[in-house]
Automatic annotation (TrEMBL), chains A, B:
It comes from the Bacteria. PROSITE patterns: HTH_LACI_1, HTH_LACI_2. Keywords: DNA-binding, Transcription, Transcription regulation. The keyword Transcription applies. CDD domains: HTH_LacI, PBP1_GntR. Residues 16-70 form the HTH lacI-type domain. PANTHER family: LACI-RELATED TRANSCRIPTIONAL REPRESSOR, TRANSCRIPTIONAL REGULATOR. SUPFAM superfamilies: lambda repressor-like DNA-binding domains, Periplasmic binding protein-like I. Signal peptide: none annotated. It holds the Pfam family LacI. This is LacI family DNA-binding transcriptional regulator.
DNA sequence: GATATCTTTGATACCGGTAACAACATCTTA
DNA sequence: TAAGATGTTGTTACCGGTATCAAAGATATC
C-alpha cells in the first residue's frame, strides 16, 4: 500500500457509524444492519425508526467493513489490453450496465497487452477481494492462472475462445470470424486476398485471425503468399501503409482484408488518394462494424461482432455465479455469433 | 480447536491470512505487517523470514481489512457521462496511467448524463470509501455536493470549468474553446456561422459552448440567428442531418461549427454526397482532434483539447492530496490550454 | 558505569460491520 | 391448553488487518 498523509489517524473525516444510528434509533446494531440489508426480517416500526435515524444522521454504510465481515464483496475486476481503444468500450458498456444494476462496482485497469502487467493487476484485484474477474486477453502467465485458481474467484475471458480456458468464456471466435470473411471474399471471386492484422506478439486474437485466414485460403484452393500478409500497428496511417506495401510487392492483389482496428478506413483513404477504384482495383473488407464504415463511400464490407452482448452475457454469468452460486456455469463457453455485413467495398 | 479455514462462510475460497504467515515465520502479525508495508522498520533478518513465508504460503494481503483498520483506502472513483464515448477514453487513460503507477485502483461508472444517477454513484463510491473522486460532469445535485463535503473526500472536476467548483478542477474551458473557434472562423471571413452541438439538457459543457459561440458572434459584430443553432444527438447521421436542416432554413450559411462528437465528420460526408465544396460552399470546423479528421479530404479544421493531460493532471493532484496531504491544492483550478488546428475544411 | 535514546518486536484494543445463536413473544395446531 | 413453530430483537464473537503503546535489547552520551 502506498504511503499516505499521516494527518491524524487516517484520511477520512469522521463519519457516522452504524452504532450511532443504533443509538439514535434506540436499537442494537444488528437491527440496523437487518433493517438496511434484510428489511423483511425486521418489523415495520423498527424499519421506519432505523431509516429515519439513518436520514437524520446522514449515515453511509461502510462497504469495506461489511465485505470484510461477511466475506463477500461487491466489486468486479476488469482488465482490458488498452483503455483508450474504442473496440472495448462497447463490451465495457455491456458489463457496466448489468453490473451497476446489480449494485456491484467495476474496477477497471489496462494491461497494455502485457501478460506480466496483467498478472500484477490480477494480484492487485485479488487483494481487493473482487468477487469476479473479467479478462479480455486469453494469454496469461502460469502464475496468474494459479493465483486465480487458488483464490476461487470466478472468471470470464472475453476477447477470444481460448484453447485452455481458465473458467468461463464469452466471446466470438477470431479464427472463425477471419475464416468466414476470407471465405466470403473468396466466394465473391477474389483470388489474391491480402491480410492485414495487428501485431500478434502477445495478441492471441491476432494470431487466431491469421490462422482463420490461412484455413480459408486452403479451403478455397488459393495459395498462401506470405507477401500478402502484413502485421502492423493500430491507426489510420498504418492502414494507408499497408495498401502501399502490399500493392507494391504483389501488384495482382485484388482484395485486402483488414482484420484490425480502423486499418480498413486508412486503407480506403489511401486508395482514394491514389485514385484507385474500390472495389474495382482492390476490394476492402474490415473486421468490426464501427459506425463510420457504413457512412464511407464506398461503404465498407465488414464483420459485425457482438461486442455489447459479450459484456452483457459475461456480467450475467459472472453475477449468477457470485450471487446464486450457479455452478453449472463453471467452465462454460459461450460462442457468440458474428455476421458478415455486405456493403459496397467488396 | 481453532476454526478451520474451510468452514468459513461466504463466497471466497480459503486464503492465507497474515496470522498464518506470522506463525510460519515465527513472529507476530505486526512484524509481518511492518515487513510488508514499512520494510525499513524491520530488521533485515525478519524481513527475509517474513517474505519467504509469504511466498511459501502464497499469501495475498487483504486490502479490505487493511483499509478498514487503517482508515485509508487505495481506490479512486471515476464517473463519466458515458463509458462508450471515445471522447473520454483519453482522459481515462491519463488517469489510469498515473493512478496505477501509485498502486491505486480505479473504480469507474457511468452516469448516463443524469445528475441523479451521478448522485447514486457518488454515494456508492463513498460507501466503498474511495479516497478520491473524479467527476466529468460539472452539474451535480445539491445532495451529491453535500455528501461529498461531509465525507471530506477530495474531488476533481474534469469536463468543464464550473462556476462553483466543488473542490479542484482540471479542464479546458468549453466557453473559451467555442469562443476561440468561432472567432477564428469569423476572422477567416465567414459571416453566417452555424453552430451544432449536443443536447444541452444536463450538459453544462454543451451550454457553455453555445455561450462561447454567442459571445464570439457579438465580438465579431455578427447577428445571432437562432436558426443557425442546432442541438442534436451524437453520431454521424446527426451531423448529416444538421447540414440538411441548416442549409434548408438559412441558405446563405457559409460555415458550420460542429461542437460535438463526430458531428463534423457526418456533416462533411453529407456535403460530399451533395456535391458541395468544402470549404467553398460551406466551411466545416470540429471540436475535438480525433485522428480521423486529419485524414479526411478535405482535412478538418478543429480544436485540439488536452484530453490526456486532463486525466494525468487530475490524478496527480488527487494523489498529492491523498498521499501527501497537499492542502494547497484544495480548491485550485487548472485551466489547460487548447489549440486551433487549422486545416483545409475552413 | 549509569542514564538517555534509538531500534526492534510484541500485546492489546480496536476499525465497522455481520454470522450465529440465544432469548423472548406471538402464533399455530392438535 | 401445552408444545412446537414462527417472528423479532439482542449478545457475543469474530472478519483480517493496523494504531498505539509498552518492553527489551542495542547504542550513545557523559
Amino acid at each position: 500500500m502506498p504511503k499516505q498523509s499521516s494527518t491524524r489517524k487516517g484520511q477520512f473525516a469522521t463519519s457516522a457509524r452504524m452504532r450511532d444510528v443504533a443509538k439514535r434509533a434506540g436499537v442494537s446494531t444488528m437491527t440496523v444492519s437487518r433493517a438496511l440489508n434484510e428489511p423483511s426480517k425486521v418489523s415495520e416500526e423498527m424499519r421506519e425508526r432505523v431509516l429515519s435515524a439513518v436520514k437524520e444522521i446522514g449515515y453511509l454504510p461502510n462497504h469495506l467493513a461489511s465485505s470484510l465481515s461477511s466475506n463477500r464483496s461487491t466489486t468486479i475486476g476488469l482488465i482490458v489490453p488498452s483503455i483508450d481503444n474504442s473496440i472495448y468500450t462497447q463490451t465495457v458498456k455491456g458489463l457496466s450496465d448489468v453490473i451497476r444494476q446489480s449494485g456491484f462496482q467495476l474496477m477497471i485497469a489496462e494491461s497494455g497487452y502485457d501478460p506480466n502487467e496483467e498478472e500484477e493487476l490480477i494480484t492487485a484485484f485479488l487483494t481487493h477481494r473482487v468477487s469476479g474477474l473479467v479478462l479480455h486477453s486469453a494469454e496469461h502467465t502460469p502464475q496468474a492462472v494459479a493465483k486465480i485458481a487458488k483464490s476461487g474467484v470466478p472468471v470470464v475471458e472475453n476477447g477470444n475462445i481460448p484453447e485452455k480456458p481458465i473458467d468461463m468464456v464469452v466471446s466470438y471466435s477470431n479464427w472463425d470470424a477471419a475464416y468466414t470473411m476470407t471465405m466470403h471474399l473468396g466466394r465473391l471471386g477474389y483470388k489474391h486476398i491480402a491480410f492485414a492484422s495487428l501485431y500478434s506478439v502477445h495478441n492471441d486474437r491476432s494470431r487466431d485471425r491469421l490462422k482463420g485466414y490461412r484455413a480459408a485460403l486452403e479451403q478455397l484452393g488459393l495459395d498462401y503468399d506470405p507477401r500478402l500478409v502484413i502485421e502492423t500497428s493500430r491507426g489510420l496511417s498504418s492502414g494507408a501503409e499497408v495498401v502501399a506495401r502490399v500493392v507494391h510487392s504483389v501488384p495482382e492483389v485484388d482484395a485486402l482484408f483488414c482484420a484490425g482496428d480502423v486499418l480498413a478506413v486508412g486503407a480506403l483513404f489511401e486508395c482514394q488518394k491514389r485514385g484507385w477504384a474500390v472495389p474495382g482495383r482492390i476490394a476492402i473488407a474490415s473486421f468490426d462494424d464501427v459506425e463510420l464504415l457504413r457512412h464511407l463511400s464506398p461503404s465498407v464490407t465488414t464483420l459485425r461482432l457482438p461486442r455489447y452482448d459479450i459484456g452483457e452475457r459475461s456480467a450475467r454469468m459472472l453475477l449468477s455465479r457470485i450471487m446464486d452460486g450457479a455452478e453449472h456455469f463453471r467452465g462454460s463457453i459461450v460462442d457468440l455469433k458474428f455476421e458478415v455485413i455486405q456493403r459496397e467495398s467488396a
